[in-house]
Amino acid sequence: MKALRLIALTLLLLCVALLAASCGDEPSGDGSADATATGSGAACAHAAEADYTVDVPATCTSVGSKSYHCVLCGESIPGTEVEIPVSHVRSTSYTVDVAATCTASGSQSYHCVLCGEIIPGTSVAIPAGHVQPAEYTVDKAATCTVAGSKSYHCTICGKSIPGTSVTVPAGHVQPTDYTVDKAANCTYTGTKSYHCALCGVKLPGTEVTIPTTNHNPSAEYVIAFAPTQTTPGQKYKVCTTCGCVIEETIVDIPPDPNSPIN
Ligand SMILES: [Zn+2]
Ligand SMILES: [Zn+2]
Ligand SMILES: [Zn+2]
Ligand SMILES: [Zn+2]
Ligand SMILES: [Zn+2]
Fold this sequence. Notes:
Elements lengths: L1 H22 L24 E9 L7 E7 L11 E3 L10 E4 L7 E4 L14 E3 L10 E4 L7 E4 L14 E3 L10 E4 L7 E4 L14 E3 L11 E4 L7 E6 L6 E7 L11
Antiparallel strand pairs: 1-2, 2-3, 4-5, 5-6, 7-8, 8-9, 10-11, 11-12, 13-14, 14-15
């Protein structure tokens, strides 16, 4: 680094000296103290800047150029020019060029924000694919004894999406109401159960007991013993369903019709 700085300083001094010489006296051709003189007369020896300077900016469609400029005279140093290639300005997100369909892939790429053209080498494929819905479609309804199937159908083309088919197990359908298998009465409990809504078969494990009902008392009393002047009578009602006695009533001794009225 020290060596470079020394060389640059030497060149600077040389340039100043040469400029002074050209402006003032005729060239003396002295040069005794100048070990690096090139003999090119008044021309700047040029010392390159650290970085390139853009001379012609590149655009989307035309190349540009840049070169090293001289730290002394500012001129572009001949022979240091290099081309700046054509350069688009890339967008930050993809643009869909060809939309994918259920069966054909599409493509997307980055476009130039300046000219809108596709930037070469940025195009990528968008895979073809069906769009999966939220709900299954029943392809084959299950019955009480035969399994069915269902699958997702594409929301765009409606076709069953391959690989999404699942089995719908066979099975009886539980009804909303019980079926009475044996009616209860005042003496015996009954039973009821679910029967398949499709085939009517009694579904195992669904049977429940129906409790006994109340007796159905007869409308009229049956007289067991009519009351006499000395003994009370008795009457009762019977159940019209099962015949059992369900209500007994003692009938008091009637007043003596021969007794004096008070
Ligand atoms: Zn120069
Ligand atoms: Zn462009
Ligand atoms: Zn589709
Ligand atoms: Zn069934
Ligand atoms: Zn009864």
